[in-house]
Amino acid sequence: xxxxxxxxxxxxxxxxxxxxxxxxxxxxxxxxxxxxxxxxxxxxxxxxxxxxxxxxxxxxxxxxxxxxxxxxxxxxxxxxxxxxxxxxxxxxxxxxxxxxxxxxxxxxxxxxxxxxxxxxxxxxxxxxxxxxxxxxxxxxxxxxxxxxxxxxxxxxxxxxxxxxxxxxxxxxxxxxxxxxxxxxxxxxxxxxxxxxxxxxxxxxxxxxxxxxxxxxxxxxxxxxxxxxxxxxxxxxxxxxxxxxxxxxxxxxxxxxxxxxxxxxxxxxxxxxxxxxxxxxxxxxxxxxxxxxxxxxxxxxxxxxxxxxxxxxxxxxxxxxxxxxxxxxxxxxxxxxxxxxxxxxxxxxxxxxxxxxxxxxxxxxxxxxxxxxxxxxxxxxxxxxxxxxxxxxxxxxxxxxxxxxxxxxxxxxxxxxxxxxxxxxxxxxxxxxxxxxxxxxxxxxxxxxxxxxxxxxxxxxxxxxxxxxxxxxxxxxxxxxxxxxxxxxxxxxxxxxxxxxxxxxxxxxxxxxxxxxxxxxxxxxxxxxxxxxxxxxxxxxxxxxxxxxxxxxxxxxxxxxxxxx
Length: 564
Hints:
The chain is of the alpha/beta class. It contains 18 helices and 20 strands.
């Protein structure tokens, strides 16, 4: 007899317990229509992930538990495994196993991650009880996200002492570059290691600075991927499994065998035709990153109640890529580009911005800032008397532009998308209350060299020159003074990004970076710039995590520090 497994790769919104519950019930009904026997949802799908300090509110936990009443009613004989927050004197990251309108058992996550973007020990107690669920001859185990990353319990105990032939893992595993393949390789290893079929159900969608890629999959005992949901899209992944392959007669018990077996009603034999397995491939690295940025932007804007965004178009590569992502995420009709030229803006920058806007089909408005800038200079002339012009006058222009963008945001309700990249944010090559002003920093975690690469990738996949070649090939400049170039203040971006990666993502110290072959003077200069600009980064808007070390989420350094 075949077992029809459904993995519901859904996009839950944190705190929208009512909306998430409706989505879960809808997916249960769809699974029943398709003849599924078991449906599995992601980790904490009722509350969304991560709810952070909402978990400190008892009313929030109570509302999430009450939502299970509606979910229970929809199950009938279908076995539904739903991620939620349980409470028994303490809060637990848990999964409810529901059948015929009853919660048959609850599994509580045993491994609580407390590194990088995770802070689960702040909110949860680890589960102590490991269980398996037996329905007829088939036994399956349920565990949650981090539990499967460890080579050992609970999975080991579920398959060896509990004779589970199927392991279902509920996850909210966030994305970073290359993570889908890294994760799946681990899952394949676990399936082979324990000779069990593994169903992995992951969250999809954006939540503040995190993006969840989904990439849910079913893997057989040999480590072969039987089916896989497309990354960054909601999907009800249906997979037919040979029931006899899931039956385990007996395995040699290992270690102390405390394990609870919970009986479910046997799965009823149904007349159903086999469903063709869906096995979507992974994106290549550049397109994977683009999909993550598009997903994160779309969900941040929509989930926070905005419809349109406004972007300052400078004629540079950063604002061009942000405009591309916004158009793909929200549609061209919901993106407004603002050109704010001064006397230092080149004709090419204005021309290129208008060409980009036309290629994307977005509205563009020109608001010259020269007269406003002149009035600032007049107003400050007495205070600035007997001083030489420097960054103060230059940054006035950036702050005027920030003011204009925020004024349009206030007037029309658009969200301002900032355009600063990781390279510039790392070393403080950005203006507080100027180009840093806004609501969401789309490419905050993208090194400058990657920004260029993604623009070229987008043009290639579009099979036309959407981002004008002139924008990609021109020497980068803030255009705040005559003939200004980024290299006046910064090393070439190839060198800068290489040293930043070693210092920020690899956590190497100065001596280690120099030992790896980098120039001593340049390394010391860049590290000093990174350290002294922590205060700026703390005041920047949230942005999408792409690398393994995103500022704010993964890397939390003190603002005040004398460590060199």
